[in-house]
Amino acid sequence: MKRLIVTASLLLILPLASQANWAQLSARDFSLQDPPVAGSSVEKAEVNTMFDLQNRRSEEECAMAEKQENPTFGNFYRNSGLITPEEFAKIQNPLMKASDLSGKIAEEFKDQYDRPRPFRTYSRLRPCIQPPGGNKSYPSVHATISMTDACLMATIFPDRAQQILAYGDRLGTLRTVVGVHYPSDVAAGKLLADQICKALLADPSFTKLLPH
To answer: Are 31 and 97 in contact (CB under 8 A)?
Structure first.
């Protein structure tokens, strides 16, 4: 039986399991619901949303997503305008560690779900960036990393929390706009990020790495 929790709504997340040191966290310590059933009315509604976004997306959005093909803390936030170069340097080490961890956990879930990318199932969807390969749609790694980082940065820079969280949310949503993830992939990534961020902030061996 899968460790993953099957429910009807993406909004329900079970409490975190007892956790070891943050560096040993894995998908087993977190819970996600199954994505919408392939070919279901829910999935088709998602595709209609994506088709509408495809008709309205801008060249700037496609270019931004192309530059962030590799989802790292640096690619997401170094030139975001949200923090200074000095601030970036101070938080770079722990945030890179958090990014690597959250990406690894999201990839473990991807392997278990094996969901095809939307453009492979629905030919009218045309990504405006290099299409990723494989059946690795759920959850979105980009959304998981961008929102894990945003959650941690909002704690470090509370005066900019709202702007940071909005930017992180936009980075995740961009993956649907450019045609490589279903909205439910992105929603799952954001919910997973919230769990990961809370686990990291609850672990003194991680928080001691953050600037004070």
So the answer is: no
